[in-house]
Amino acid sequence: MKILLEEKLLRYAAPTLYTKMVGIFSTYHLHPYDVHATALKEENGYEVSLKYSTDFSQFVTQHFTFKQVAEPDEEVTQFFERAADQCKSLLIADYYKMIKP
Description:
Layout (H helix, E strand, L loop, with lengths): L6 E3 H4 L1 H13 L7 E8 L2 E8 L5 E8 H5 L3 H26 L2
Antiparallel strand pairs: 1-2, 2-3, 3-4
Helix pairs in contact: 2-4
């Protein structure tokens, strides 16, 4: 029998992580709608995926334990900071491509 795993929006699957992500992204002047964040519950934690750029074609994924989800640590912070920095850089690059004559 095959078990289907359901990917859920991070906001509902792990609200603590979502709040942490929103806080970090806001320091980079990014809105939560600039990223599509999902979480897949596994045996020993969550697989968190963030998709970003104008067409959501870029993505990063990382596994977090249940403890990290309940109490975000430095690894969680660094993951969201790297993602926010990449997202901001791509959005700026896409903007300049768009306004280029």
